[in-house]
Fold each of these.
Amino acid sequence: EAGVAQSPRYKIIEKRQSVAFWCNPISGHATLYWYQQILGQGPKLLIQFQNNGVVDDSQLPKDRFSAERLKGVDSTLKIQPAKLEDSAVYLCASSFAGGEGEQFFGPGTRLTVL
Amino acid sequence: GENVEQHPSTLSVQEGDSAVIKCTYSDSASNYFPWYKQELGKGPQLIIDIRSNVGEKKDQRIAVTLNKTAKHFSLHITETQPEDSAVYFCAASRSRGKLIFGAGTRLAVHP
């Protein structure tokens, strides 16, 4: 079974630029999550999708971050404009049915904002 | 707000010794407690989990205990091996799926 795919793996941008990350979840997984992991900290949920609907985006800085999950499969996370404090690893995870189901994580995208 | 505290932040043991990592959660409605292992350059991987209706769970060298009254849960690794070296995260969740992670414990197992 293929795992969660993410791209790119690394990205370096200047502050105020925009950036987008892509995630392809495990086939058949209805729930998709985006987490932000700052160096030395645990992952923090940014947004949770159930199929193509948003379940929780309470921690998403909506003035600069946006996410979509077209057709309930792939998802993109965008930052515009980026700030220095956005430097982190952005992890995508998926689970079969949300709730207490195991979340499978992708390898992450490491973003550096200069 | 929801919070999970994890201790210690770093742990160094000799191969064959046991390692214990402890977590405390604040949300009394939490009912699912997974533990993840994260190796360098990789995403977290689930190693064991426990639900609130169970006090203890074991899988080979790994065990987790849960004290709902005290809102504590712990990870126990016995007979540690060098390949156990990684960062370990505890997390807590209500039924809706959102995981609240601890800050992580960097475990080093020395041959």
Note: The two ends of chain A are 37 Å apart (CA to CA).
Amino acid sequence: DAKTTQPPSMDCAEGRAANLPCNHSTISGNEYVYWYRQIHSQGPQYIIHGLKNNETNEMASLIITEDRKSSTLILPHATLRDTAVYYCIVHSLTKETSGSRLTFGEGTQLTVNP
Amino acid sequence: NAGVTQTPKFRILKIGQSMTLQCTQDMNHNYMYWYRQDPGMGLKLIYYSVGAGITDKGEVPNGYNVSRSTTEDFPLRLELAAPSQTSVYFCASSYSGHLLSSYNSPLHFGNGTRLTVT
């Protein structure tokens, strides 16, 4: 799986958009970009994933660059409850590799300030 | 749905003791996983299973055993607890059907078991 690089920490003001970057310059054509977050002491929570196109759901938006070497997770109106560690993961799952290892790095600690 | 349920929430073991961490899911997911998370670190995969009767090693399997006799349950066994196994353990599950899109379905995590070995 491609390695990802994220800043160790970021701050954001409550109510503003939080933009979390992730570099994955060695991503291959069949690898998806996933984002999870982990609020202190809880299990990680899935946020969003995508392959090529930008994606949006009720939690966030995912912007993937045209060359797919980087992506940005956008929380449009951050709240105090969005304070968490955010993990960007790149992984390929095919019928042959389904269920194989999904590796979490150390992520970005996002702190939303009042 | 309760999702992924882990028991116990907390446990303190003495060196050399054994215990089983329980994990059950009610989403009829084929795939189940065990991760450990040391303080300030990311998650490391211990074992995973693609279906009942099938298990495989992850990154850090030494000192652990698993079984998968049913779709719902995926217990993790520590036979001889060591201080290096002090960690938070997370169980997860994911769906996999017969469509390519389902191979990339997200993981659903439990809330973890905090284990201390002294």
Note: The longest strand of chain B covers residues 43-51.
